[in-house]
Structure formats: structure tokens, C-alpha cells
Structure to design on (257 residues):
């Protein structure tokens, strides 16, 4: 359990640094076409009348007039503050990985759960900061979790559980593709891919854990949206990340399985 908690701490400390490599998507800037140059007609020369004796001389071209008293210098750009250290994320990582080790025990499939949880912690931070679930990170979770589950199936001589894990991934993928294609759906295909990856360990645990892992994210996200709307922190059209809810629901399902 201590080793698992330390893995969570390391993942939590690395998550903010990795998140900086995946900034939010920004639409390309559209440059308007240049306006045609219009040359104004030359103004007629005007000779000023002679100034009376004793009057101050007019300002000559090229000589800047003194600034009025009290005028301030132009404001300088303020550099952004550095990103905070992920101490809080490290604590969350220790709770997540330590909780999995305590709930699952020293079973052969525990490394798969810890690998998916460690990469999932990084994915949650990236999604919270940039509304993205990058394919390289989702692919790393799929590769690590799938490889570790395959090793566990070979060690324990239970290929049926590996087949059930693959069925869970396929079912999660199919369900979330349907949800993402519904009219006015807020799900992105990054959420679809992550749901398929989380279906691997949930399918390994059996049908109750899989169904619970598919249901809990929507309940958690719904409660969060209601609380934020009541506090007037968001509007109805505010985009919210769904990756943290997916990961939290899968984690709770693994603990309760």
C-alpha cells in the first residue's frame, strides 16, 4: 500500500508539468485583407498671420512638447504568475493509488489498476486545465493497463477474465459513441476513448463493476453541474470537462466491486 501511495504521489507531482505540454486548443487567427491605400489630395499651403510682438514662438515641427504635469508613463505588460506546485494533486494521487491497493489487495491485476490510475490522474489535470484528453496519454493508459491485465491473466490462468475485460472496453466504447452522437451532446471523442480504456479494468472486475463505472460518472457530473449552477459559477452553456468524472466513477466502482 505504501508503494502504491508513493506511485500516486509521483504521478501527482508530475501531472502539472505534463499538463503544460498540452495547452488548450485555440482557433487560428483570421487576418482581415488589407484595406486599399487612399492618397488624400494635397492640402493648400496656408501662411499664418504674423504674431504680435512679445508672443511666444509657435512650436516647430520635430520638437516634442513637454508632457503635462501628472501624466504617467505607459503601462508595462505584466508577466503571468508561475503555475503552482502540484502538492494537492500529489495528495489526491496518494489517496487514489493507496485506496486501490487497500481495496484490491495484492492481486496480480493490481499493477494494471495502478497504471491506469496514475495516467488517469495526469489526464484529469490536463482536462481540467485545457479541456483536452490527449491521445498519447489515453493510449499510454490503454497500453499499460492492457499489458498488465494480459500478464495477470497468464499468471492466474484465467483467460476468461481477460476476454471479459475486452468485452467491457468494447461495450463502453459503443455506449459512449452513441452518447457522443446524440443531439446537443457535450461529450467529445476524447471522453469516448477514455471510457473504452476504463472499461478494461472494470470489465476484469465483472458486470456489476462495469455497470457501476458507466453510471457513476453521469451522476457525479450532474451533481457538480447543479452545485455550480446554484452557486452561479457557470452558465447553462459553459463547457465543463467530463474526464475527471469518468475517472472518479471508475475509481469508486473499483473500490466498491
Amino acid at each position: 500500500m505504501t508503494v502504491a501511495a508513493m506511485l500516486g504521489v509521483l504521478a501527482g507531482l508530475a501531472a502539472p508539468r505534463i499538463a503544460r505540454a498540452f495547452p488548450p486548443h485555440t482557433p487560428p487567427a483570421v487576418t482581415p485583407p488589407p484595406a486599399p491605400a487612399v492618397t488624400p489630395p494635397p492640402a493648400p499651403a496656408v501662411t499664418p498671420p504674423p504674431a504680435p510682438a512679445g508672443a511666444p514662438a509657435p512650436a516647430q515641427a520635430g520638437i516634442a512638447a513637454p508632457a503635462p504635469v501628472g501624466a504617467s508613463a505607459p503601462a508595462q505588460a505584466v508577466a503571468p504568475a508561475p503555475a503552482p506546485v502540484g502538492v494537492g494533486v500529489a495528495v489526491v494521487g496518494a489517496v487514489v493509488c493507496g485506496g486501490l491497493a487497500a481495496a484490491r489487495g495484492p492481486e496480480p491485476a493490481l499493477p494494471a489498476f495502478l497504471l491506469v490510475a496514475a495516467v488517469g490522474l495526469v489526464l484529469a489535470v490536463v482536462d481540467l486545465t485545457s479541456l483536452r484528453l490527449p491521445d498519447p496519454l489515453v493510449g499510454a493508459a490503454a497500453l499499460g493497463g492492457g499489458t498488465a491485465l494480459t500478464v495477470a491473466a497468464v499468471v492466474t490462468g484465467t483467460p476468461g477474465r481477460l476476454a471479459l475485460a475486452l468485452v467491457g472496453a468494447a461495450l463502453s466504447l459503443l455506449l459512449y459513441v452513441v452518447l457522443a452522437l446524440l443531439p446537443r451532446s457535450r461529450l467529445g471523442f476524447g471522453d469516448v476513448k477514455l471510457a473504452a480504456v476504463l472499461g478494461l479494468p472494470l470489465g476484469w472486475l465483472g458486470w456489476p463493476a462495469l455497470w457501476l463505472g458507466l453510471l457513476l460518472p453521469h451522476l457525479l457530473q450532474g451533481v457538480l453541474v447543479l452545485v455550480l449552477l446554484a452557486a452561479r459559477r457557470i452558465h447553462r452553456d459553459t463547457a465543463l470537462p467530463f474526464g475527471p468524472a469518468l475517472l472518479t466513477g471508475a475509481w469508486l466502482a473499483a473500490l466498491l466491486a
